[in-house]
UniProtKB/TrEMBL annotation:
InterPro entries assigned to the protein according to its UniProt record, in alphabetical order: Aminoglycoside_PTrfase, Kinase-like_dom_sf
UniProt cross-references to SUPFAM superfamilies, sorted A to Z: Protein kinase-like (PK-like)
Segments forming domain Aminoglycoside phosphotransferase: 62-175
Organismal lineage: Bacteria, Pseudomonadati, Pseudomonadota, Alphaproteobacteria, Rhodobacterales
Name of the featured protein: Phosphotransferase
Residue ranges, annotated region (Disordered): 1-20
Pfam name, any one: APH
Amino acid sequence: MENCTDPDAAGRQGQAQQPATTQAYFDAASAILALPSGTMEPDISAELLRRHFGLSGKLEILSSEVERTVAVDLADGRRLILKTSTRPEARDSFAFQAEAIAGLRRAAGFVVPDILPTLGGSLTFAEDGICGYLQTRLDGIALHQMEATPDLLFRTGSALARLDLALAPCPCPQPTARSCGMSVAGHG
């Protein structure tokens, strides 16, 4: 796997390198985000959860951008998020997201979900045109539901700057235009 950034440049300058052209990056990301959600396919989330993770629980489809995002409440009280998609570009995106989240577990100062491995031990699964991953669900208030005060904006910007630095040494797949669509939630 390649690093998320050029490790030599990051080491020389102490910071991650920007994409070749920021406008091209955002144009590509915007085009992917403009696609309709993949939630029109029949929901087989319960079967995927059982087959790949050996789990079952109460499922609720959540609002999502392109992929299907399902809240999973297990009988033992654990709360999870199952992300799946039938889109070919989701495979790289999910691999990046899962590796990045897993990589942040070692970074100080972050509250991140745990990525639950499949029964086969991998962070993601792909089968019959469907790919996905499973993570724990964090408590908190979604950023878009909070009042945009100057303090909140400062704390959000500071957290994103720390996130950028923490991801610099990440041994995750090369990011794609859609890879970085991870949720940001406010945690008191």
